[in-house]
Amino acid sequence: MKSYLIGFLTSLLLIIGTMGVSAQENNFDELSRIPKDTTVDFPLDYKIARPRTAYPHWDDDYDAYVAFLTPAVRKTQVAMSYRDKDVVTTITANSIIPHAQLDTTTIIDDPTKLVGTWRMLKFRSVRYNDSVYIPTKQYYRLPDVLLDEKSGDEAFAVITDDTFKLYAKEAGKRDFKKMMSAKYKIENRRFMLMYKLMKASGGVSQFGIDEKGRLIINYPSVIENVKKGEYFSYYAVVVQYIYEKVG
Predict the structure, then answer these.
(1) Which of 98, 143, 155, 165 would give a disulfide with 236, using CB separation of 3.0 to 4.6 Å?
(2) Are the C-beta atoms of 217 and 207 separated by less than 8 Å?
């Protein structure tokens, strides 16, 4: 057992449970030798929902997601703004309400479905852009852009009822490394709030499970460019993980 766990082992039951998790976490090499299903297609907008590109529907559709926000996730939000001539740019590095949302059809009512070992199928960064020309209320949607793709790497997420651990092995490398270990809390069936000490300083992802049982975790950032009386431009950069359950 690792030394940092010793102070927490207060009963034989907890010792046995921890040994079981350790055995599971040491099985990545064996699991990674099983070929992935490469026939599954995940388009860039897989399980992404966006507002209708017409007035007033864009605002109405966007505002509908505000109902999912909780005080805990709101406290995590930090934005930075600057002005360049007449354009005000606002950057939210970890946004809880991007215009490109994880589809609500992925919401799960039973959080125990998260518990287990998950193998990464997709790891990518995608940019989505909507804009509106204010004088005519005309909306525009640019093509989605794949910014980065690392789905060739092997990674496993080990999730308990309150902890999230991520192990990864880069393509061409030999060993798995623990990339992160954090506590998490589910907020309103939709947000996964990960933190070390304080929830307010944690990171927030949107999560859900699709109809095939695959776990989707989206980590959005947002950039808004506004020229008063002329246009709004919304950029959402979503780091997306898609996993299949293997244990």
Answers:
(1) 98
(2) yes
The residue among 242, 233, 54, 244 whose CA lies nearest residue 127 is 233
Residue type, 144: D
Helices (H), the chain: 3-6, 12-25, 28-32, 57-63, 71-74
- CB neighbours (10 Å) of residue 158? 20
pLDDT at residue 16, rounded to an integer: 29
- Taking the C-alpha atoms of residue 42 and residue 218, their distance in angstroms, rounded to an integer, is 14
Structure tokens belonging to residue 130: 């909507």
For the chain, the domains span 35-245
pLDDT in tens, 113-167: 999 999 999 999 999 999 999 999 999 999 999 999 998 889 999 999 999 999 9
CA distance 119 to 28: 9
Check residue 95 and give its pLDDT.
96
Beta strands in the chain (DSSP E): 48-49, 79-84, 87-92, 101-102, 116-133, 138-141, 145-149, 154-159, 163-169, 177-187, 191-195, 203-209, 215-227, 231-245
Enter the pTM of the model.
0.86
Conformation bin of residue 132: beta by default, left when phi > 0, alpha when psi is -120 to 50: beta
Q: How far is CA 59 from CA 4, 46, 55, 130, 194, in A?
A: 49, 22, 8, 12, 29
Whole-angstrom Cα Rg for the chain: 20
Per-residue pLDDT for 221 more than 60?
A: yes
Give the residue, 10 or 127, on which the prediction is more confident: 127
